[in-house]
Design a protein that fits this description.
It is built from 8 helices and 6 strands. It is mainly alpha-helical and 254 residues long.
């Protein structure tokens, strides 16, 4: 039933009822309950407006940014060729997105073709060009393609490989209630220098407090974080350790 103010008659809050149906199909609702209903409706409207504007700016900025990304791709390709690397400059990997649905994430390749993120017996094998683009997070800019496709947003919890989501509890999985982002609240709060549980908690805080102002604040802090070069690379070792920590919590709960 859609709730509208004109369909209600308010009565004192000491009356112990939720609603009473009448012949005119009207409902009598206690004042306190009606205020709560109104607040929920206002919150839903504000959330809808925020998500609409967020998606609008994502599309507009991505269309502008794709030009820069294309130019960057040319320079990266030339740099790889000069260093004797003729393989594709595009790296694709399965990541978990909104509502736990997996999607294919795009990045500029910063490692050798043979590098396997799931192989914990060897260290990450960066290319010469990869070390530079990774240092300034330029490899992430190709995710503008994911934004245009609707998989991601500029700001939101970072999309992780599916193994993370598979080992999260129900509450932690709420970090996937929104589209993942190129940068997020956890990234500006410590990036890879904080624990996996701190990252998740910061992401959940963002989900609850998300607004255009907060997104703008994260963008500004992200720029400062990039030039600070702090906690840029998680590395295979960190990824495996974080997944191991999530598995431990699952074992404890059981």
């Amino acid at each position: 039933m859609k709730i509208r103010e004109r369909e209600f008659t308010y009565i004192p809050t000491n009356v112990d009822i939720t609603y009473i149906s009448t012949e005119d199909n009207k409902y009598i609702v206690p004042l306190e309950k009606s205020k709560h209903i109104k607040n929920l409706e206002v919150h839903k409207i504000k959330k809808w407006i925020y998500l609409f504007l967020k998606r609008f700016f994502d599309i507009v900025l991505s269309l502008i940014g794709i030009v820069f990304v294309c130019i960057l791709a040319i320079f990266i390709k030339i740099s790889y060729i000069v260093t004797g690397d003729f393989d594709s400059i595009i790296f694709k990997q399965l990541r978990t997105g909104k509502n736990g649905k997996n999607f294919k994430l795009y990045k500029f390749r910063s490692m050798t073709i043979k590098n396997d993120v799931m192989d914990n017996t060897t260290e990450d094998q960066f290319t010469k060009v990869g070390k530079i683009i990774r240092k300034f997070s330029l490899d992430e800019l190709l995710q503008i393609v994911n934004i245009l496709k609707g998989d991601m947003s500029f700001i939101g919890p970072r999309p992780w490989i599916p193994e993370y989501y598979e080992n999260m509890n129900t509450e932690q999985r709420h970090r996937c209630d929104m589209r993942p982002g190129i940068s997020g609240y956890a990234q500006v709060k410590g990036r890879n220098t904080i624990s996996i549980f701190d990252k998740i908690n910061y992401d959940l805080e963002y989900i609850n407090k998300a607004s255009l102002f907060m997104d703008l604040k994260i963008i500004v802090l992200t720029i400062a974080t990039i030039f600070g070069h702090k906690g840029v690379d998680a590395g295979k070792g960190t990824i495996h350790e974080e997944i191991k920590e999530l598995k431990k919590q699952d074992a404890i709960m059981q």
